[in-house]
Automatic annotation (TrEMBL):
<protein>
    <submittedName>
        <fullName>ABC transporter substrate-binding protein</fullName>
    </submittedName>
</protein>
<dbReference type="GO" id="GO:0042918">
    <property type="term" value="P:alkanesulfonate transmembrane transport"/>
</dbReference>
<dbReference type="InterPro" id="IPR015168">
    <property type="entry name" value="SsuA/THI5"/>
</dbReference>
<dbReference type="GO" id="GO:0042597">
    <property type="term" value="C:periplasmic space"/>
</dbReference>
<feature type="region of interest" description="Disordered">
    <location>
        <begin position="306"/>
        <end position="331"/>
    </location>
</feature>
<dbReference type="Pfam" id="PF09084">
    <property type="entry name" value="NMT1"/>
</dbReference>
<feature type="domain" description="SsuA/THI5-like">
    <location>
        <begin position="58"/>
        <end position="246"/>
    </location>
</feature>
<comment type="similarity">
    <text>Belongs to the bacterial solute-binding protein SsuA/TauA family.</text>
</comment>
<feature type="signal peptide">
    <location>
        <begin position="1"/>
        <end position="29"/>
    </location>
</feature>
<keyword id="KW-0732">Signal</keyword>
Amino acid sequence: MKLHGRTIVKTVAGLAMGAALAFAGPVLAQDDDPIRVAFGDIASVESLNLLIAMERTKERGVPMELTYFNSEDVASQAVLGGEADIGVGAPYAFIQNAKAPIRMFFRMSGLLFFPVVNSEVYSGWKDLDGEEVTVHSRGSGTEALMRLMEDVHDIEFSQISYVPGSEVRAGAMLQGTIDASIVDAANFRLLQEQGGDKFMRLPLEGIDATDEALYANADAFEDRAEDLTIFVEELLRTWKDINDDPSIVGELREQYGLLPDLPDEAASEAVPYYTQAVEGGVYPLDGGEPQNARDDIAFLSAAGQVEGDPEEIDPSDYWNFGPLEAAKSAE
């Protein structure tokens, strides 16, 4: 599977032109306006679980619209400014530093990343002292993890560069334009398949933190409460279905016509990607709980992205568990 930055960018440009508004079924939504979701990443197999849950939500009468942005920073600003209702990420630092009136409401995934280097250039963490590494975006889990590794291994990177999209970073490593990065499971497998022994995974220990969550602005929690509950119900159902049988991702992608412009090689990686992620326990079935907020603060504070004692924080400063509790009570 060969995925390069230019191909992916073209794919995203085509996908981002349209808004997912079509729906046929009983009308249960609070109003006809779509819930607007801001996604600060490229279109890829990683987002299929979210897209499936959105399609199922639309089938229940809640219109939804997804827009791709070029970074999580831009997406979070869109949510903060009211241009979008929901964002994708784990914006603890943004909430803390900007006192932003946004809160997370569904834990999508835990961290399962693979720091990887060109073994012809580096042989371990110590070799990265004074060197450049590439991560997903500013404030992302990938950046937090690499910042934490600086402290753990007593090193300091000369620069951290931001390149959204694990596929794009893997493609850049295959092309030889970057030599140290962090990728997801599917793209680590890609590097192994196409690069052989050239690419080496660096070890990680004791990391338990949120990779991505869904968050919303205060107006959405108030104005779209019933719709958010329906959305969370479908998120919980989709996550359970995928954990029970990851191959359902391929079936539902075809059923809903999701990401039709993905290259065949990328599309063929969908089921293996979710199979490996499920085996790694990436997708939690409970949607999140207060302890996750404490674990995330512990991780992010160790990485220097936030401040605070994880045992003393108030999870409600970062999370709104209302939609999740309502969805679970409806089961």
